[in-house]
Specification:
Number of helices: 8
Distance between the termini: 29 Å
Number of strands: 13
Largest sheet: 7 strands, mixed
Radius of gyration: 19 Å
Order of helices and strands: EEEEEEHEHHEEEHHHHEEHE
Structural class: alpha+beta
Strand content: 15-25%
Bound molecules: (3R)-3-hydroxy-3-methyl-5-(phosphonooxy)pentanoic acid
Shape: globular
Length: 310
């Protein structure tokens, strides 16, 4: 048996849309920070059965079409391996509620398979492998501030994530997760992305703008400029959600409580509290802040049920 783990990550500059859905190749680069408190732990054992068994958060996942089995099939075909596994995986945070459980999940699985078969894959190779489970998983192989290069090659060999700065570069920076809902999201990011790419009027404009934000974001992180980082991250996320909301059929992950939290964060900011929002494929709001402001933010009754991110 081998054990592996990986942290969730939250994109400061988002990934939304694929140029190749089979290989999980994105239309643009993205940049994330790891959430070191949100972790997936995975145990891998060889199975004697002719099928894989997947146990997610102590519950057996059935159906051969599940995403984990599909990923194992990809792995077996890429590395010419004919093994079946018992995969036991556990998240210490809500699964599939926009908290990037698939990112840490597939990253932990890629690391575990590498260990199990003693493949000695490099971080770049692991990132490329994890990407085949879920795009954002390629950013969870490493921790800290990570850049996923979109790459240009049709085979995806240049589409991988690379660490830019360690978390210790900016220990004051914090991410709090305001949990609006813990139940699974109703529309998968995979389908929602396709709809946005195909039908949103402003999607291409967002891709171009968002791509240019990467350089400014790297600069903001390098200089530890919280204001610049927050403005860029919030703007990028909100524009991405606008594209989803105008697509056909529309995807709206925001609930009334999501809106209330966003308004509250903007209100707190007016009162001089350093905080910005970012939101992924779910209703939960991630609040980007500084350590010295966490106490003030937590005082708000709306936000008392939060998790510290990193
Ligand atoms: O990797 P997926 O399919 O779960 O897509 C994640 C997309 C966002 O979380 C919304 C943005 C991102 O860059 O992580």
């Amino acid at each position: 048996m081998v054990c592996s783990s990986a942290h969730a990550n939250i994109a400061l500059i988002k990934y939304w849309g694929k140029r190749d859905s089979d290989l999980f190749l994105p239309t643009k680069s993205s940049l994330s920070i790891s959430l070191d408190c949100l972790q997936t732990t995975t145990k891998i054992t060889f199975s004697n059965e002719p099928f894989d068994t997947v146990i997610l958060n102590n519950k057996r996942v059935t159906g051969q079409a599940n995403k984990i089995v599909r990923f194992l099939d990809t792995f077996r075909s890429l590395y010419k391996i004919d093994a079946r596994y018992i995969i036991e995986t556990h998240n210490n945070f809500p699964t599939a509620a926009g908290l990037a459980s698939s990112a840490s999940g597939f990253a932990a699985l890629a690391k575990g398979l590498n260990k199990r078969h003693k493949l000695d894959l490099s971080k770049k190779e692991l990132s490329i492998l994890a990407r085949r489970g879920s795009g954002s998983a390629c950013r969870s192989i490493d921790s800290g501030f990570v850049l996923w290069h979109k790459g240009n090659k049709p085979d995806g060999s240049d589409s991988y994530a690379q660490k830019l700065f360690d978390s210790s570069h900016w220990p004051e920076l914090q991410v709090l997760v305001a949990i609006v809902e813990t139940k699974e999201k109703s529309i998968s990011s995979r389908n929602a992305m396709q709809q946005t790419v195909a039908t949103s009027q402003n999607y291409k404009k967002w891709v171009t703008k968002s791509e240019t934000r990467i350089t400014s974001m790297i600069d903001a992180i390098e200089r530890r400029d919280f204001f610049a980082l927050g403005e860029l991250a919030e703007c990028d996320a909100f524009e991405m959600h606008r594209c989803m909301q105008e697509s056909t059929p529309a995807t709206n992950y925001w609930t009334p409580k999501t809106k209330k939290i966003v308004a509250l964060v903007q209100e707190l900011r007016k009162r001089g509290i350093r905080c910005y929002c970012t939101i992924d494929a779910g209703p939960n709001v991630k609040i980007i802040t500084l350590k010295s402001h966490v106490h003030e933010i937590r005082k708000s009754p709306l936000l008392c049920y939060t998790l510290a991110g990193n």
